[in-house]
Amino acid sequence: DVSFLYIGEDVKPFTPEETKEIVMSLQQPAVFYNMVGDWPALHWNVEYLSAVLGGKTIQFRIGLKTVDLAPQFETSCSYVKATLDEFLAWSCGQPSCLSGPFRCYEYSKYWAYADYKYIARIFEDKPEIFKDVRWSDFGFSGRTGKDSTLWIGSEGANTPCHLDSYGCNLVLQVQGRKRWHLFPPSDTSFLYPTRIPYEESSVFSKVNVANPDLKRFPQFKNTTAHVVTLSPGQVLLVPRHWWHYVESIDPITVSVNSWIELDADHEARVEEAITRMLVCAIKSAENPSDEDLWLNPTEVEATSHETNLQYLNKAVSAYFSCQKTDVPEQAHPSS
Q1: What is the DSSP pairing of strand 30-32 with strand 58-64?
Q2: In sequence order, what are the residues at sequence separation of 6 or more whose Cβ sits closer than 8 angstroms to the Cβ of residue 234?
Q3: pLDDT of amino acid 291
């Protein structure tokens, strides 16, 4: 049938059931096209979001555009609270009086990133906006903007190379383009993983993948980078435990993402609980006057040993509960 040739932009290439199967089983990164053309969230450019938020301020991370050999971890960045109007004024090069909190940071030398903002929190007084994001098209019924995070950046804004301990990641690009440098789990030893700065569920690389120091990290040359430029209307799947370094390459970028839980997360939560307990114990004993400088800003404070033990206990209990319900009787027990 000749009409088949014209099926495309208005017809999604996969059903929700097919998409979910791809997301849950694929071990390689993938970009989905023509899956979100009818999502109202595609209109979430910064001007629109600014109008919705009104004068509400959000926190921006400020970093230097100069690329050093060392990664620009969040612990070494500055932070300002500003409205999206002020962010727009600053990124357009308007007078400093209009850009308020950004006036100390010259646009040509710095970037700003409002990253990891829970949509449920910043739009708590406008819950109707959650429906603009429809992860149900990917087979996750009931998952909306309420289960997602928002990322707004200027050119050069970046996230240091890291892997997420939990789940896989679906990322919708709304405005501008972002470049993703992705590395498979098998490259882990070549990326020199570290838990300092400490953040639950994030393992950072000591290497600045945008400008690697091969004298300090010679094994990095053995990595295999998968580089993807994500454009508006496209959705990227980042499979479990894939490393990623992300940079904004247009003057303004907006993305929305959601982490999809996986069965393997139960085991990962036990590993993370042990890591939390060890890192907190070691760093607290190392130098009590260190004022938690080893904590990523996303971690508010170092928790007590007792709290960490409770956390571990809950993670182990959840893991064994999952084993009982998921593993057939004849299967040999997990170590």
Answers
A1: unpaired
A2: 31, 32, 33, 172, 173
A3: 65
pLDDT, tens only, 317-330: 888 888 776 655 44
| Cα–Cα distance, 21 to 17 (Å, whole number) | 6
Considering the segment(s) 16-261 as one domain, its CATH architecture is Sandwich (2.60)
Q: How far are the Cα atoms of 102, 311, 314, 334 from residue 317, in angstroms, in the given order?
A: 47, 10, 5, 14
Domain boundaries, the chain: 16-261, 264-324
Compute φ and ψ for 103, nearest 5 degrees. Answer: -60, -25
Residue 4: predicted pLDDT: 32
Q: How much is the pTM? A: 0.88
Cα–Cα nearest to 169, from 120, 242, 270, 266: 242
